[in-house]
């Protein structure tokens, strides 16, 4: 029984550890708004900054430069795992000892703003001269009931990658990348005919999050969304959604015409993009940072190029992924945190983002000089102005789970070819989750 | 009392308190963040009627039923092969035990690559043997995924069973076999009449470890199928994980975790009872 006891206690402890810090508190602090006119100006002391490991390079560089130029205010960086950053933050808030500023995955922000965990920054953001240039998707996810609880930190945007060499070999113009679904299909067909293991298109067909990241922008580009209404009154918009049907039909065509490799069906993420970087794929919807990380610098712009993710008829959009800056309501040095945030948002810092593997989150950074220096990131930045991210409390449950309604709908429509059943599944699944999450 | 107090304190802090606190959390609607309420046994009553939880429990039972027997049989066979100190025994012991040492998570990622249609080794080999198509997508079809994972786990876990049984076999006095040989016993008679009865405790231990491991299965399913297609290959620990860390229903997930603890405790107790050894322990 000794072994059994250990197993039992270990299992219970995993769940218990999450809440252990919560003994002292049964709630979270009510959201606060800074009152002082000196908030964020000439602050002193130490700022505790938690950033996800995915922004490690960016965060380390920014903190290093900030600390070198601010003698009286220093920032201490703590990197958090992408697998438990949300629970770590929640635990610290419950314990009454949160960091001063957090780079939080933007789709996770609504779960916290609803409970009043973050500082209301509406007045401070209103004073920013570049407020209107901030990423609309990031801003939307940090807004709740007319107030703004965060600002964009960095962008992880989806784009359409294509192989210029394969375009040339297939007789296509590499300076005329796809701007419609029809062109994606015809270009993929042309490249597929090259044979020798070359495929026209690729997608991570068993990676729910990857598909949400790359398929949804086409729907948004057509002016539609999968959910309507604000967080507290959202409804599913699946059945009868023609933009959604066109997007699913595109992937169905790609799949049935064998324009993508067979093993795309089981690609659940870890190997996503490897075949594209190996030069075997003509077109791949993916993350901007995904290919810039995998490919050699000499291949970027010469062999691999990006273009905004198109919709049916020439519009484009992007998934505004990445992180928002938020300040927990119980932060000890909120003034210092806001000073640091303002500094990061300045053009001088934003201009460094491309070299650090990230996309800036201010659309006004996109100047001719920026485009000349960073032509690939300029494409992503251009898309940022048309970008979006669905503000919902149940994004993970809807879009990132194998058993979630998004993937069930995609599978039924694309692999099984049953569009009407797929839409029914999507409508009922999203409706169920939205009703469960309703206040 | 003074001498045992440090151990008592450690158990209290690291075992009794967390378990007690887990029980408390399971009686609340503990969310990721924000206030919580005491809701009594509602989480437990909802568990029973939750089709997701019930399915995951049933799937876990099915998975356990499939792999437990083969792990024991294959482990026993390997132990028979390597129990004697012959030339090459050390090599084979190492080779058989190596999968367990490398670890389930690492091997699951490797298998994920080898199960890829067209490019993976599994399809290549099986298609050459005429047993499968070269574009078989193992991880996205329920039956294929379950088959692949069960074969993989049997390969992975048999090494540990082999070690447990081999240690027991090497402890059996050689004289017993020599006496049997003098009486004309065959190899099978010696195994059935000497080895198996004297391995009763080792077999019980191997089975209990195997069953508990199957009930706590997570890595292989999380990496290879993510519980899919749909939630058809979602074991109960993955259900708990997703309730806790995706849905952020921490109170409900804790109730599920404690229910699992109780189920595992009952099954292990039954195994202990059925496989008990009534021989007096020599002191």
What's the quick description here?
The complex is a heterodimer of chains A (439) and B (283). With 439 residues, chain A is α+β, with helices and mostly antiparallel strands.
How would you describe this structure in keywords?
heterodimer; A: 439 residues; alpha+beta; eight-stranded mixed beta sheet; two-stranded antiparallel sheet; 14 strands; 42% helix; globular; disordered N terminus; B: 283 residues; mainly alpha
How would you portray this structure in words?
The complex is a heterodimer of chains A (439) and B (283). Chain A contains 19 helices and 14 strands. By secondary structure, chain A is an alpha+beta fold. In chain A, the strands form 4 sheets. In chain A, strands 1, 2, 3, 6, 7, 10, 11 and 14 form an 8-stranded mixed beta sheet that branches. Chain A has a two-stranded antiparallel sheet with strand order 4-5. In chain A, helix 8 (181-192) packs parallel to helix 10 (242-256), helix 9 (208-221) crosses helix 10 and helix 10 packs across helix 18 (405-415). The longest helix of chain A has 19 residues, at 2-20. Chain A starts with a helix and ends with a helix. With 283 residues, chain B is mainly α. In chain B, 71% of the residues lie in helices and 0% in strands. Chain B is built from 13 helices and no strands. In chain B, helix 1 (5-26) packs across helix 13 (250-274). The longest helix of chain B is centred in the N-terminal third of the chain and has 32 residues, at 51-82. Chain B is globular and about 75 Å long. At the A-B interface, helix 1, helix 3 and helix 18 of A face helix 1, helix 5, helix 10, helix 12 and helix 13 of B.
